[in-house]
């Protein structure tokens, strides 16, 4: 008997490429907050003391934080944030998890993206470190694949 071994693509050494309405914001080294939660409402039934009913009500999406070393793509993020002051509309976007050699492992489509916060580097000559930036975005759901 011969066994066929299938190579499994894993997320080791991943970078995250972010695009907003097709505009590439560059790649990031970390991505936190991708997720969804079903908000539950608890209802207690009169006369039934053994359990309470848990009813799903809505979906809740946490903000996503992307971090990377400071670089030339910082200007793209600054431009996106400055567009908010000029009358901003919600946008769609994607986050692509890629291996170091550029193969896409997974893609998440996001709807109604709004920039929330940008944090720049901390300059301290006493403890030199890699300068990083963080971008926090809010969204209102995942797009169907």
From TrEMBL:
Pfam families: Phage_T4_gp19. Coiled coil: none annotated. InterPro entries: CHP02241, Phage_T4_Gp19. This is Phage tail protein. It comes from Occultella glacieicola. The lineage of its organism: Bacteria, Bacillati, Actinomycetota, Actinomycetes, Micrococcales.
């Amino acid at each position: 008997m011969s066994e066929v071994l299938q190579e499994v693509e894993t997320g080791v050494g991943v970078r995250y490429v972010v695009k907003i309405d097709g505009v590439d914001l560059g790649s990031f080294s970390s991505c936190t907050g991708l997720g969804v939660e079903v908000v539950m409402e608890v209802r207690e039934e009169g006369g039934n003391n053994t359990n309470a009913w848990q009813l799903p009500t809505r979906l809740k999406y946490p903000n996503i934080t992307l971090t990377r070393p400071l670089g030339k793509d910082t200007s793209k993020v600054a431009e996106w944030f400055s567009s908010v002051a000029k009358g901003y509309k919600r946008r769609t976007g994607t986050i692509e998890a890629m291996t170091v050699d550029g193969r896409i492992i997974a893609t998440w489509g996001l709807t109604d993206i709004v920039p929330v916060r940008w944090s720049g580097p901390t300059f301290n000559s006493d403890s030199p470190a890699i300068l990083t930036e963080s971008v926090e975005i809010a969204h209102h759901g995942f797009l169907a694949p």
